[in-house]
Design a protein that fits this description.
It comes from Aurantiacibacter marinus. The protein has about 375 residues and is an alpha+beta fold. Helices cover about 60% and strands about 15% of the residues. The chain contains nine helices and six strands; from the N terminus they run H-H-H-H-E-E-E-E-E-E-H-H-H-H-H. The protein is elongated. The relative contact order is 0.11.
Length: about 375
């Protein structure tokens, strides 16, 4: 049997089914429109590479669509809430349910349950699909859509500072001491920050300390001469911690992977507040889908014939979008240490949970 918090079984299924169909419809509309707009700007860059054609465009779309779906799923739940409740209100179904003795919380219960299911699906989808799409698309973009990298975890166009000197590479692959740079350039600068010598090599490996260039060739700017150096060690100040810190993309790593990255950076004395906030947000973010029915609930109550239905829908939409603004602001504060990571990830959720509950109780209960 259902708890007293829910209406009858038939009514619960009716509301949940209606809500779920509207979530799917709104999400599909948003993803298709935004994907088409995104392709208008990216198709030229993709086709500019020799050998790219329709297959690469479809490949980009298949990698971009999961990102858009994950990002706009909470917005879809919010809009679906407003559309569902406004329709029920317009057709006097809310009045009928209240006349049958249901409270506002009981009317919203099937929507909250559906939001909880969507949150679980969103979390699983993010961990299993979106992280892989983010990693592959990021690596592909780093090589300007030239080819899909064999190893999605590799990075392109890496850049590290060693005091005045600069170490650059076309790509970095491998983890830890097995990290390898390819197409490496090392710039030595003088006291005036002018380039004094350029050293190039096909590859470089970690030498602890420094990086060993294989078959290095140096060019002296002052003498305009080239010299073969063979194997040489450069950039002793570029540590594995720097490389790992630059490698970590929290949007492209699952919770276990991000946990290992945070532990590795902490062991090397690196600051991890931003990554810890993102770790917690991987949990709190999907839960926003459960919060949206509460924030958009104001659109479903009040008399539709009073002319305030549109105003109530706008208020519900404003509450929902205010949550996303505060959520992004809190994450930004947590990135530079203004908030503790746990507070940055969870404070907006609980704040708007209280706000939504307060609005519902004071207006309807």
């Amino acid at each position: 049997m259902l708890l007293d918090f829910f209406p009858s079984r038939r009514l619960t299924i009716y509301l949940a089914k209606m809500f779920a169909l509207r979530i799917i419809a709104v999400l599909a509309m948003l993803v298709l429109v935004l994907l088409m707009l995104d392709l208008l700007g990216k198709t030229g860059n993709i086709l500019a590479v020799d050998g790219n054609g329709d297959a690469e465009i479809w490949k980009y779309a298949s990698l971009r669509a999961p990102q858009l779906a994950a990002r706009f799923l909470p917005y879809s739940v919010l809009l679906a809430t407003i559309i569902t409740l406004a329709g029920l209100n317009q057709n006097s179904e809310v009045i009928a349910m209240k006349a049958a003795g249901l409270s506002a919380h009981q009317i919203l219960a099937p929507l909250l349950l559906s939001g909880m299911v969507v949150s679980v699906i969103s979390f699983t989808f993010n961990e299993r699909v979106v992280t892989r799409a983010n990693a592959t698309l990021s690596a592909w973009e780093n090589v300007d859509y030239a080819a899909v990298p064999v190893e999605p975890a590799s990075r392109g166009n890496v850049y590290f500072s060693d005091g005045r000197n600069i170490l650059m590479a076309a790509s970095a692959s491998g983890r830890g001491e097995q990290t390898v740079f390819t197409d490496v350039t090392f710039y030595e600068r003088d006291d005036n920050d002018m380039i004094a010598r350029q050293i190039r090599a096909e590859s470089a490996s970690f030498a602890n300390p420094g990086w060993q260039l294989q078959g290095a060739v140096a060019f002296s700017v002052a003498r305009a001469q080239t010299q073969e150096l063979g194997d040489v060690i450069v950039a002793p100040g570029v540590t594995l911690g720097q490389v790992e810190l630059g490698r970590v993309n929290p949007d492209a790593e699952t919770l276990p992977q991000l946990s290992r990255s945070i532990a590795a950076l902490e062991s090397s004395g690196r600051r991890t507040s931003e990554l810890e906030a993102k770790w917690w947000h991987k949990i709190s973010g999907p839960l926003s889908a459960m919060l949206m029915p509460l924030l958009g609930a104001v659109a479903g109550f009040g008399l539709a014939r009073s002319g305030n239905l549109f105003v109530r829908a706008v208020i519900g939409m404003a509450l929902g979008f205010a949550y996303f603004v505060v959520d992004n602001a809190a994450l930004a504060m947590g990135s530079f240490g203004g908030y503790p990571p746990l507070l940055a990830a969870w404070a907006p959720f609980f704040l708007f949970l209280l706000v939504g509950e307060t609005v519902l109780v004071r207006t309807e209960e």
